[in-house]
Specification:
Layout lengths: L1 H20 L2 E5 L5 E4 L14 E3 L16 H4 L17 H38 L5 H42 L12
Antiparallel strand pairs: 1-2, 1-3
Length: 188
Amino acid sequence: MRRTLLLILMVLVSSSWMAFGQEIYRWVDEKGTVHFADDFTLVPEKYRDQIQRRTPSEKPSPPPVRPPIGPEATRPTAEPTPEKKDLLGRGEEWWRAKMKEWNDKLQNAQKNYDLVYSDLKQKEKELADAKFKPDSLKRKLKAEIKELEVKVKERERERDEVKNMVEKVLPKQAENDRADPAWLKPKE
C-alpha cells in the first residue's frame, strides 16, 4: 500500500514538474485569429517564423479584478479605457467617417433624384396645360418627358444603390468585422 501511494505521489510530482517546463506557442493567422499550441509540430509551417514562445510562470496568475460594488462603482477611474477596434484594427472614427461619407452620397443622390423628378412633373403639367397649343409643341414636350423619365429611373437606381449600402451593406460589413453597431449611428 505504501509503495503504491509513493508511486502515485512520484507520478504527480513529475508530471506537474514537466508541465511547468513546457513551452506554449502563440501565432496569429491571416484572419486575425490567435492560436495556441503546446507542440511545435502543431504550428502550421507558414506561421512558424512569427510564433511567440512562452513558458508558463511558476507563480500563479493573480485573481481577476472584480468591478466595485456600491458607491465605488460610480466613481470615475483614472485609467483611460483602451479604444475599441474591429477585427481589422479600425476604430470608431474610421466607421463614423465611412458612414458619413455614404450618408452624404445618399443625400446627394436623393437631391439629384428630387430635382429630376420635379422637372418631370413640371413638363407633365406643361403638357396638360398645352391642350390648345400646336401639336409640334406637344410632341416636343412628350419627347422631353420621355428623356426625363429615363433620367428619373437612373437617379432612382443610383439612390437605391447608395441607400442599400447605408442600410444593409455597411451594417453587414460592420457585423462581419465585429465593429460596434453604435459606430454607424450619428452621435447624439
